Amino acid sequence: MAGRTHVKRYICVIFLVLLCLSYVIAWDNEDLEVFDAVEEVNENFYELLGVDQTATAGDIRRAYRRLSLTLHPDRNKEDDAEIKFRQLVSVYEILKDEEKRKKYDEVLVNGLPDWRMPVYYYRKVRKMGLAEMTVLLLVIFTIGQFLVSWAVYLEKKFEVEEVLTSRFKKEKRGKKARLKAESELDAVDQMIQEELESIPRPKLQDLFILRFPVVCVKTVIASPQLVCLIKEKWEERQAMERAKEKEREEEEEMKAAEPTRKPKKRQKIELPEYTAPETDTVPVVYGVNSTGEDKTEEKKNSNLKTGEWTADDLSILAKAVSKFPSGTQERWEKIAEFVGRSTPDVISKAKQLNTQSLAGSALVDDSSVIGSRKHAVISDTTISRRQEADDGVSAETNKVRRRNKQTKSSERTLLISEVEPSQKTKNETEKENLKSDQNVPTQAGDGSQKESVQFWSQTQQKVLEWALAQYPRGTAERWEKIAEHVPDKDKDDCVARVKYISDMIKKKKQAAS
């Protein structure tokens, strides 16, 4: 143990000493220049200059000047004058430098590096030409390729042997398997041998240096066929381009032969101008200045109607109740201005009439405005406003009923009976249609969708539109809830009615466009 510890200490000390070394012996460029000059001149430099080895720098400079006058190419007419003068210059450059002169003196003593030193091969490679370098690289590459191919072959062979032998060992573990394996040992060896023989062995003809000339020769032999093939491909391409050009010209001729269609001018649709019906009622004006309030009040009082309520007055009252729903500031004052009567008169009349009479007068007015349009579609906003108006009127009337329950008076009976005959007949026909809808047999409703769509009264249509607004899309069991509100109609009738109305709207839009 003690000896091992001493050895480890010595190794550590040597390693640290080697790390501290900063001086490295190597050949530099100056050494290579001296070696090249010695090989090129192949003569002693001192003898060439005619001086002694112990001569000073001044003696060497004077000898160089003397020889340069005689060896200069301008004065020396020999064929090798330039070569001799260049050698003289290189000798002088080495001897005038103290460092290079010392290295040359070492060469005189030890000689040039031989083949046992790496610098020998480095200097040889530096002096090689392009052809020599190419041949050397090809030789190195060929040897490397051959060695690598053999290494790959041996590696594959080793892997196959390992795989097959390991598989055979696994099968040989059991007793029965052992007996079977011993009997089949020859077969396994034969199989391993076949697998090894199937691996291709590396051959000399597969080397690049031999394969490349063969490929070049085959390329030269097959060059005429390649030229013909390229020519055929070029001709096919030209033919395809000519065919495309011909088709393009034919299409242009066909387009030119076709008559040019002028774009249709869009017909301007003139929308009909709506003119409001003339009425005797005075328009309501808000925000009047406080000056002259007494005069305006006197004018209003003078324009107010008095006396009994006619059917037109009742219709205007129903419109006003719908226009100004409950919750509106100064509601009854605005309704009174709209009707053209005093506020107490309007309130008392509203107390006398019930919700049905007001709704009936509103329906009469709507039917007079709509005219002959039987299938007019009422928007959701209109239904919501009417519903709010009806709710407001019913709330007001309920309050009045709670305060003082009035019995049917003769005046109320006379006012209802004084409704215009045309309006009365319209309400009666509407009720008759509703009754006829209720009495329609189920077989007809189940028979066709058109009959169930057509037999819809105005009241049912109004309730359907209100229910559509109350239950928008996305509501759970939407159509069942809508059908509960519509009298004498089920879910299928409501769905068919909505589809029918949407189809009618689409057809009108298409006809307008």
TrEMBL record:
InterPro entries: DnaJ_domain, DnaJ_domain_CS, DnaJ_domain_protein, Homeodomain-like_sf, J_dom_sf, SANT/Myb. Residues 44-108 form the J domain. CDD domains: DnaJ, SANT. It is found in: Endomembrane system. It comes from Lingula anatina (Brachiopod). The chain crosses the membrane at residues 133-154. This is DnaJ homolog subfamily C member 1. The gene is LOC106164297. GO terms for cellular component: endomembrane system. The lineage of its organism: Eukaryota, Metazoa, Spiralia, Lophotrochozoa, Brachiopoda.
